[in-house]
Amino acid sequence: MNLEKIGLFAIAMIMTLFSFQTYSFAAEVDEYIWTEKSPMPTGRFGMGSLVYDDKIYVYGGTVSGGSISGGNTAILETYDPKTNQWEQLSSSSISRYLVQFVEHQDKFYAIGGVESAVTNVVEEYDPFSNQWTNKQPMPTPRYNVGAISIGDYVYTFGGFGINNTLTDVVEVFNTKTNSWDIKNPMPVKTSETIPFKINNSIYVLVYTKPGETPSIYNYDPEQDTWTHIAEMPSEVTLPRNVIVHNEKVFFPSDKNLFYYDLKSKKLIKYPVAPLNKAINNFEIINNKLYAMGEFPNLGSFLELSLSDLVNPNPNPNPDPNPNPTGNALLVIYMDSGLIKEFEMTTEEIRNFSEWYEGRAKGNGREAYIVNKKYNIGPFNSRKDFISYSHIESFEVQEYSR
User: Hey, is 6 helix, strand or coil?
Assistant: First the structure.
């Protein structure tokens, strides 16, 4: 087959990946609410973050009370969603903010940023030994750089250079040889460069300056070529991160939350209460979105459940007396005298318990939505809305099959 035709076919497939027609999420509530979690011990802004082994790692940033003119930190901390607790780890050798932090083959890399000036310092952190190691610096000092791991390499894109100049630089770090290689530049010089992966392909959301529409490009590392894919719709606020999770591409921001469904090829607005405050970073673990580093409340750490996106319409079960479908029976005693019973998995029980505990503290939505898995009949789904204020008590009866 003609290699040129293969290349054109691949480009055509890539360009049909994003078709930005906006839809609204069919929600049972007006909007979902953020829940406050244990705050970051080191409140900060302009830090790097990543997810590894179901924990969030936060590194660097500025701790100067909302100012980015000084007070940088080298502190590394990790958050465990299972315990809602933070742990401080070893600090790196230099303090910096607007730093990139990326995981690659079980090691973490802190790249660039601002110390007293723009830096090209690269440090490697080993989460098993809790130790930092200096690596070969970037050829071009940059901050606010985009970075992503793919194959045996870490790719870096754009960012600000010396004297706050926009760059189109693409430089690749080989962690095995501890060396850098320079690639073809980006099509545009950017102030915001957010790379993400879909099916092992690199996509980069780029933003040049206020008033201009962000665009998505595809970068082919083998051919070292760029292809313009699409412009972002105007209703999507410029995201802080782009996160690919469960066949969806999330574009979280402080104003709204959109996600692109890779299966249905629809851009959908998720009905979440706006934060209306500058948020530094977002991460997703186990179908929960975390927002961190609210400005000026630098220790802020918030959680939003995305569970309704996982299985909003469970498979119907016409059997009125089905076999057990979970690991336990949740029995809820209502103040009206009504008793509700639901067969649930361990994860579903945990989600309900976390909602109940959060609501007891005044956080989260008033009603908990249970997807019924039986007696669905002709309907697509049946949902039960459990009002917190009408719950007298509940118990969990575990069983084994």
Answer: helix
Residue 199, amino acid = N
Cα 346 to Cα 353: distance, rounded to the nearest angstrom = 11
**CATH 2.120.10.80 holds for 18-309:** yes
Average pLDDT for the chain: 84
Residues 118/143, Cβ–Cβ less than 8 Å: yes
Cα 364 from Cα 383, distance rounded (Å): 18
In the predicted model, is pLDDT for residue 47 greater than 90? Answer: yes
Could you state, in order of their start, the residue ranges of all structural domains in the chain? Answer: 18-309, 328-398
Q: What would the two tokens of residue 38 be?
A: 């244990």
> Is the pLDDT assigned to residue 212 strictly greater than 70?
yes
Residues 6+ apart with CB under 8 A from 344: 326, 327, 328, 329, 330, 352
Please answer whether residues 61 and 293 qualify as being in contact, where contact means their C-beta atoms are separated by less than 8 angstroms: yes
| DSSP element (H, E) containing 58 | strand 55-59
* 359: its two tokens: 């609501």
Kindly state the DSSP code that residue 237 receives in the 8-state scheme. Answer: P
Average pLDDT in the 341-351 region?
Answer: 84
- Mention every residue, 6+ apart, whose C-beta is less than 8 A from residue 109: 100, 101, 102, 103, 122, 123, 124, 125, 135, 147, 154, 173, 175
Residue showing tokens 């360009």 = 15
Tokens of 130: 């809790």
Cβ atoms of residues 174 and 180 within 8 Å = yes
User: 337: pLDDT confidence band, cut at 50, 70 and 90?
Assistant: confident
Residue 383 · residue 370 · CB < 8 Å: yes
Integer distance in angstroms from the first to the last C-alpha of the chain?
55
Alpha carbon distance 272, 304 (integer Å)? 9
- The beta strand positions in 93-239, using DSSP E, are 100-104, 107-111, 122-126, 131-135, 146-150, 153-157, 170-174, 179-182, 192-198, 201-207, 215-220, 225-231
Residue type at 40? M
CB atoms within 10 A of CB 80: 15
Q: What is the pLDDT of residue 380?
A: 54
Q: 64 or 35: which carries more pLDDT confidence?
A: 35
Instruction: Kindly report the number of other CB atoms within 10 A of residue 120's CB atom.
Output: 20
